[in-house]
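Notes from the 1:1 (GR / supervisor)

We went over the backlog. Supervisor wanted to see one worked example end to end before approving the batch request, so GR pasted a single chain during the call. The sequence is below; no edits were made to it. Supervisor asked that the structure be written out right there so they could see what the output format looks like.
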Amino acid sequence: MIYFDNAATTEALPSALRKFAEVSATSFGNPSSNHAFGHRARRILDGARVSILGAMGLKKSHELVFTSGATESNNLALKGVAFHYAARGKRIITSAIEHPSVLAPLMDLRDHFGYEVVILPVNGEGVVTPEELAKAMDGSTILVSLMAVNNEIGSIFDTAGLSAVVHKFRKAFFHVDATQAICKTAFPYGDCDLISYSGHKFGGLKGTGALVYRQSIILQPQNEGGGQEHGYRAGTSDVAGDAAMALAQVEGLGELRQREAIVRPLNEELRRYFAHKPGVLLNSPVSASPYLLNISLTKKKASVVVEALSNRDIYVSSVSACSSKRDPFSYVVDEETGDRARAQNSIRISFSPLNTMDEVKTFEKVFDEILQEVKDR
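Structure output shown during the call:
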């Protein structure tokens, strides 16, 4: 098997699986229970929280809520800030290529709660520049939500520059969806007021995630109940999953350079290959994350090629996994290129440090064969 769909999910790290099994077997108590076994679970949960904030250099400035993943984290960040700070203003700024778990709650705020949502276009490099953001900011803006790395084309946003623009406005907070950046692409965590991500994107388990937020921020809880997670996320904590995610994240943050040194040559080799391949257009900018490479086919149908690859035990995706059940149309590629046909025929290849150059070479050979076999569309 050749697995090139790591932006959808990564393989769980063996160390994370061992941690999950260990905690599940020996410390399965409810961390809210007021007895010694519950206290043991609580210490593990609190230790996981402290280790993540420490690895991010945020122990003194931020807090962390464990969630089920980036979708829940994004909803808590966006609606939590919007509802609590509504008296300050009801204007929110985002980009046209954000993940659906950002765009959907913002549309809900707009359509049902009267918020003004400003959606900024991206440039040819697939980003919103600090200069464009500055033009959109005003005194009624309470929240700006812009991703760190795009999940389809891998474009890297200037988080530091964007944060500097936002923080010129006293009432505004800066939220970053860092799902494709954590443990892959460094960015200044301390410049962000809120950071969302999922554990399964960097070797943790599915169903785990976090929202990191500045200590001075107050959020409106989105699910009420027993007051767990500082009162912001009611429900029994997944101690084993959170501990496993913390271990994977600390390990990943400590190996950023080593992992990139493995992944970047794979990306560069495939980029060279596609650049000389008739009927293939590169969508990922040169400056994109080395973990993602997006192309469009001009002569073959992308979904047919993806299926043919799958039949050969090679796995890529035609669009983001969160959009794949709908029409295979990439609104990200459409926004970046302005070419609808290109957006309807894209393929995303995403790497992990477990991938090898031999796998890339095999992919190239099989891709050549498939292009010969598949009829033109």
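Supervisor's comment: The mean pLDDT is 95.
Batch request approved.
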